[in-house]
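Hi F.,

I've been meaning to write this up properly since the lab meeting, where we talked about keeping a consistent format for the predictions we share between groups. The idea is simple: the sequence comes first, exactly as it goes in, then the structure tokens exactly as they come out, then a line or two of notes. No screenshots and no reformatting. I'm using this chain as the first example so we have something concrete to point to.
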Amino acid sequence: MVTVRPYADEDFEDVYHLRRLSFGGPKEPPSTPDAPPGSASALVAQDDTGITGHLRVWNYHQFFGGRAVPMGGVASVAVQPHARGTGVAGRLLAESLVLMREQGQSISTLYPYVIPPYRRYGWEHVGTMQVALLTLSDLAATPRASVPVRPATRADLGDIHACYLRTASTVDGTLDRSAPGFDISRKLELDVLTVAPGEDGLRGFLSAARPDGKRLRVHDLIADDVDTAHALLRQLASWAGTITDASIRLLDPTLLDLTVPGGIQRGFEVHDFMTRVVDLPVAVAARGWPALAEAKPFTVDIEVTDPHAPWQAGRWRLVHEEGAVAAEPGGGGAVQMEARALGPWFAGSASSASLRRAGLLTGSHEAAAALDRLTGAPHPVHLGESF
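Output, unedited:
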């Protein structure tokens, strides 16, 4: 019989070998766990043969509508070969929903290796993590900028995070990189961490790793304005000759589209991610609703089918008033939504018409259109890192 329980310190080696079997890595485990205390929680599945499965939940916050919503980042879902296909992963996913709700993580996001199990438990595609490729010689035509740049120091870390947040808070799906899920000081371990000072903090920064080979790996290229973007792009151009190209994780994809003088290979890497609403009223209260800043009050009645999170199943009335939205029990259930519909709706990545065509939403067309008004759907949703 399989039981699911919280991960314990004594599980470290068994879990490491299970994760290595599933995802690869050195045979010998590291001397210390790879997740700092408080940054993540975990579950294990166990039967009379030992540990048969593992799941980790990172402690993150994800921007939607300009506000950082507590999010459980599900990762490292691994099952022993002999136990695959026996429901172990499903047990772990079901228990993770309970765990995340208890931890106040009202939404959950993951990168799927396989799609069907996550869809069965309510996750659905909402966006992408994208990496672009730039040929560095193409940056020679970047206009010169008078913006000064210099290497970052430990004293810059707070301003680096503040600069990052100014961009991230405007892009639905990005993480706020707050503690304990992130340690901003790890930026100092990168080969390149260049900042562009301004009168009130930093105007932008560039972080990158210089691995072996002919490619620079850019983690961040963040700029408040076009002059700063040009100054940082010229920093990249200075590597031409020793390095052929640079891969760049895209936080705001349009920044490079509008400032790079040469070509960009968008979609050099694309990783789809899936999101699930874990606790509807808490998630709705935590999200920002900028599309409603000037809208008159209105309500939308929905009915949710969610066998794996029964605490949010049933009828809810979404009440908009003065730019805020609340989910209150009750209402007439004018729109019927599957659990899988809640993630794309909450993220604003899919319109009610798309959800209807996918068989995830039924009921009143007029009420469904009001759901789109709440989120401003459809629009792109992006993550800037994988986990």
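Notes:
The first helix runs from residue 12 to 23.
The chain has ten helices and 18 strands.

If this format works for you, I'll send the rest the same way.

G.
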